[in-house]
């Protein structure tokens, strides 16, 4: 006989969102539950209705996705386009279907109890059977599905539980998020038991005025509620009782026939400690459901944060404060499991975000694991909770398709029902990139009735016009809007909603240019309140190069510091043989796949600095507290003074007692030496005590200010070795293996490629400059070499004047860029050194990578790094490793021999093992072969990074102008 669940073909029935699934609720049943995670019997069918062979079982780890567990159904990456051509709600016949089976031993003492199966998440359709009997169906891949097994399993006896997971379904069309496609059970499976009389849901409202309201939904699995039940509770040990006023009103209400099973607890907590992202104060609430005889039938425990969220005018307020939203979009991702993320991993994600100054996440583009919200409550992060709806490829059809109406409302409602008690959740999001239609308004209507305490946002609605996004959005939340448009809106006088970009500053490859400019504008412009960087992860899956397979969970320990062990690589789109894919667009996060921070995080940390140097005047340094809720007492600090003579002086700093928004002048602890040299003051700010997200002593920010600009360069004494040139007029120098030549090009970043700049560079021929010597003139010891660099677009004239001095050589260069050479990558010199010079020490910005439009996070000081550690291993090799504002540097061998370079002005410098063409010749970091010597670039001008892979390019101020560029430097042997 055909299985009725299969006969129903629920994978092609969008109207059917579930069958016999229990309503979603906010009661945490994890404590005391029977975990069913571990190895399950597994078989992968080619289609849901294919016959299941009796043998041929393998095993599969639950939770996990079979796409990284050794099956032939591998991960695939497509952003917008669906991986199959069928229109919604249709799916391909070939539809991988995982059948998971295991025995469950239901404890004998559960006899008479209500027994519930919870499947944490399965993508995309879940069919449940027990002992061959159909139990239920669920869709909505990132929320749990619960089924009542009370009548089906027999306590004390084993039963066979089968979970069938169908990969492609009508639901896939609304789960078309920009991430890998997988199949499997991605969150924990568990079984729990309650008394038949139970808390079906508990809803908590807790405001900053200390008001607490707890609404309990009470049900009895046997049907009618028994007489005499009641609830009690306690909040951090303070007893709470049922609100009799509410009972009376309920009983007198003619609309209510009999007593529906509602009870309320209401109280006011005096002197309440409010919750916010800076001081996430939590209370523990326990709610007990009693039988008439006073015995406890059910208990629910949860943490409560007292806080308000409201929109007043065009401001989003948390506890009355207009907080900046320093957010990031976070997906569920892990380089080994694909999608399954442990609680420890989630904690590490969020702790890292806190350490780098973030205070918000958007759960792009579906609700996270329940543990994520517990952690955000605890660590202090605002959450925009997003429903699992992205109809991207067929957005327009689906947003108004009544067949999908139930799914939209169901997904949004289930998220709200589950997460409503978390103080961290400050906004509900109706989903992502699904156009805008009646289905959205229906879902918005449900939320507004059920939870009027939080705003709703939906980017697609805001597309209608930021001033009036309609019923589906209380926030103007565009994505990748150019800053000037945001500013124009905020200054237009027509703005009615807070403007908080749901996605901005696309972090693909070497990116996030102009982030500091965005924040300068946000902090200066009422109506602009922040945004969410796209995105947290580079979704590179650890892949064995030999057979192209995902390493899977066995790959633990095969990566670190952003790169992989030899023989492995970070796979991106196309690496699993997908016929159609979107390449490295999946690698667009602020962390590497192993959560190693990319340089942008240091930039962000500084932009978000809680304490800042407002100004430096003769009377001293003015410090300001830029937080919203707390003082500076949780911070410790040290002054650091970097001097041009090579010294760095330090002194303890005493942070003044400042309330949010306050400033105070403090005395400068140093006297400046009277050599007239450049001097930079940095305040190193660290955590004074252990924080839940960072140990004591963790750097929080390092605001800085110049105290004295650079003086004129020291005169050089004439003399030195005569200049040696080869027949092409190229410098011959014992420390260089390649003479300094003109460089106008860089290995294109993802922004350069996808934003169209790099294709234009190739048209101009900048990647294939041909040098031709024009003239060599000698004037005493001084030699002038003029060369032409020919590209398809024309010719650039390059002049080098070599002047030897005692102990070194001075090189004055100029390059004249005709108008055809507009917007090039760089103008500067490139040369290569002998092998063995493996340590770079520099005076300039650092220690991390910085570029002209991403240099706010790198203080000026004396820095040192092994050359190999300077390079950032972006997944698709590209321009990397630059340091901005370098005044001078040495490159040395362990025996202290080497070379020293002094620049005429702070310049962009990079020292790596790779020529630009080495980087462009490969597609993955594992294919790079480091050169023995160093490739050194000194740039008179270097183009900003921008974010044009998805969003605005850099600003005009960061482009390389045409015309004449001049730069000078000296080269000495150490
Ligand atoms: C936007 C998506 O919302 C996000 O999921 C991701 O794809 C991002 O872009 C780019 O990485 S949608 C895009 C069409 C602007």
Automatic annotation (TrEMBL):
Indicate the family of this protein: Belongs to the glycosyl hydrolase 2 family.
Q: Which GO terms describe its molecular function?
A: beta-galactosidase activity
Concerning Gene3D superfamilies, the annotation shows: 2.70.98.10, Galactose-binding domain-like, Glycosidases, Immunoglobulins
GO terms, biological process: carbohydrate metabolic process
Q: Among its keywords, does the record have Hydrolase? A: yes
Q: Identify the stretch(es) annotated as Disordered.
A: 693-722
- The record places domain Beta galactosidase small chain/ at 714-972
Q: Give the E.C. number(s).
A: 3.2.1.23
What keywords are annotated for this sequence in UniProt? Answer: Glycosidase, Hydrolase
**What PANTHER family has UniProt attached to this entry?**
BETA-GALACTOSIDASE
Catalytic reaction list: Hydrolysis of terminal non-reducing beta-D-galactose residues in beta-D-galactosides
| The protein's name | Beta-galactosidase
């Amino acid at each position: 006989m055909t299985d009725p669940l299969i006969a129903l073909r629920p994978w092609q029935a969008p109207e059917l969102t579930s069958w016999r699934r229990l309503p979603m609720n906010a009661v945490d049943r994890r404590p005391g539950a029977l975990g069913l995670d571990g190895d399950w019997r597994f078989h992968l069918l080619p289609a849901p209705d294919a016959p299941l062979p009796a043998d041929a079982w393998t095993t599969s780890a639950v939770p996990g996705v079979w796409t990284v567990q050794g099956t032939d159904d591998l991960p695939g990456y497509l952003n917008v386009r669906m991986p199959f051509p069928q229109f919604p709600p249709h799916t391909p016949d070939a539809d991988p279907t995982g059948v998971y089976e295991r025995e469950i031993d239901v404890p004998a003492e559960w006899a008479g109890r209500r027994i519930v199966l919870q499947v944490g998440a399965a993508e995309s359709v879940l069919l449940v059977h027990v002992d061959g009997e159909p139990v239920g169906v669920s869709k909505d891949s990132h929320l749990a599905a619960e089924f009542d097994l009370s009548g089906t399993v027999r306590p004390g006896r084993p039963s066979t539980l089968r979970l069938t997971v169908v990969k492609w379904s009508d639901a896939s069309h609304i789960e078309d998020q920009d991430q890998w496609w997988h199949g499997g059970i991605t969150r924990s499976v568990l079984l729990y038991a309650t008394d038949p009389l139970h808390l079906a849901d508990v809803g908590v409202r807790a405001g900053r005025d200390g008001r607490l309201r707890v609404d309990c939904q009470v049900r009895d699995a046997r049907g009618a509620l028994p007489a005499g039940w009641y609830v009690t509770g306690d909040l951090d040990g303070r007893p709470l009782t049922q609100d009799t006023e509410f009972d009376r009103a309920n009983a007198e209400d003619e609309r209510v026939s009999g007593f529906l099973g509602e009870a309320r607890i209401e109280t006011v907590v005096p002197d309440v400690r409010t919750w916010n992202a800076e001081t996430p104060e939590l209370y523990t609430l326990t709610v007990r459901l009693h039988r008439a005889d006073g015995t406890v039938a059910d208990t629910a425990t949860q943490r409560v944060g007292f806080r308000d969220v409201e929109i007043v005018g065009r401001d989003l307020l948390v506890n009355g404060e207009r907080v900046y939203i320093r957010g990031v979009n976070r997906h569920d991702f892990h380089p080994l499991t694909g999608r399954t993320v442990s609680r420890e991993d989630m904690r590490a994600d969020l702790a890292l975000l806190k350490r780098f100054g973030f205070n918000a996440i958007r759960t792009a583009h579906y609700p996270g694991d329940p543990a994520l919200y517990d952690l955000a409550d605890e660590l202090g992060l605002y959450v925009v909770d997003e429903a699992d709806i992205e109809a991207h490829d067929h957005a327009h059809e689906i947003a108004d398709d009544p067949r999908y109406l139930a799914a939209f409302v169901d997904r949004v409602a289930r998220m709200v029902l589950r997460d409503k008690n978390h103080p961290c959740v400050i906004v509900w999001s109706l989903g992502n990139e699904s156009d805008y239609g009646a289905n959205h308004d229906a879902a918005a209507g449900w939320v507004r009735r059920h939870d009027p305490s939080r705003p709703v946002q939906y980017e697609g609605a805001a597309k209608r016009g930021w001033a009036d996004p309609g019923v589906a959005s209380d926030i103007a939340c565009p994505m990748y809007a150019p800053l000037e448009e945001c500013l124009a809106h905020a200054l237009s006088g027509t703005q009615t909603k807070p403007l908080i970009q749901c996605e901005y500053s696309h972090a693909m490859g070497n990116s996030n240019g102009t982030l500091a400019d965005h924040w300068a504008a946000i902090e200066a412009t009422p109506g602009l309140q922040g945004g969410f960087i796209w995105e947290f992860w580079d979704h590179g899956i650890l892949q064995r190069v030999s057979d192209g397979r995902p390493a899977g969970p066995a790959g633990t320990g095969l990566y670190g510091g952003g790169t992989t062990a030899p023989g492995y690589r970070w796979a991106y789109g196309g690496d699993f043989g997908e016929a159609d894919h979107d390449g490295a667009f999946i690698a667009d996060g602020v962390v590497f796949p192993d959560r190693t921070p990319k340089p942008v995080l240091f930039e962000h940390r500084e932009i978000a600095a809680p304490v800042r140097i407002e100004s430096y005047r003769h009377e001293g340094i003015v410090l300001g507290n830029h937080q919203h809720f707390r003082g500076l007492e949780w911070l410790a600090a040290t002054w650091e003074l970097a001097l041009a003579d090579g010294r760095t002086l330090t002194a303890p700093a005493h942070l003044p007692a400042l309330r949010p928004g306050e400033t105070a002048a403090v005395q400068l602890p140093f006297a400046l030496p009277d050599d007239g040299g450049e001097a930079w003051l940095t305040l190193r700010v660290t955590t004074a005590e252990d924080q839940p997200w960072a140990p004591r002593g963790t750097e929080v920010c390092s605001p800085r200010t110049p105290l004295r600009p650079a003086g004129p360069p020291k005169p050089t004494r004439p003399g030195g070795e005569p200049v040696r040139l080869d027949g092409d007029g190229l410098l011959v120098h014992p420390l260089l293996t390649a003479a300094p030549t003109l460089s106008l090009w860089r290995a294109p970043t993802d922004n350069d490629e996808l934003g169209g700049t790099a294709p234009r560079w190739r048209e101009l021929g900048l990647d294939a400059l041909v040098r031709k010597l024009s003239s060599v003139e000698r004037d005493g010891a001084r030699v002038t070499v003029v060369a032409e660099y020919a590209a398809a677009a024309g010719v650039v004239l390059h002049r080098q004047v070599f002047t030897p001095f005692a102990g070194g050589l001075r090189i004055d260069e100029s390059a004249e860029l005709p108008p055809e050479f507009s917007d090039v990558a760089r103008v500067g010199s490139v040369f290569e050194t002998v092998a063995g010079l493996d340590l770079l020490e520099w005076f300039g910005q650092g220690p991390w990578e910085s570029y002209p439009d991403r240099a706010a996070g790198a203080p000026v000081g004396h820095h040192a790094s092994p050359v190999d550690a300077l390079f950032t291993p972006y997944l698709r090799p590209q321009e990397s490793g630059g340091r901005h504002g370098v005044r001078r540097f040495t490159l040395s061998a362990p025996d202290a021999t080497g070379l020293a370079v002094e620049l005429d002005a702070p310049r962009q410098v990079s020292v790596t093992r790779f020529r630009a063409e080495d980087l462009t010749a490969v597609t993955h970091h594992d294919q790079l072969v480091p050169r023995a010597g160093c490739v050194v670039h000194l740039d008179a001008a270097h183009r900003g990074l921008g974010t044009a892979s998805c969003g605005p390019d850099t600003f005009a101020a960061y482009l390389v102008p045409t015309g004449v560029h001049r730069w000078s430097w000296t080269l000495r042997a150490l």
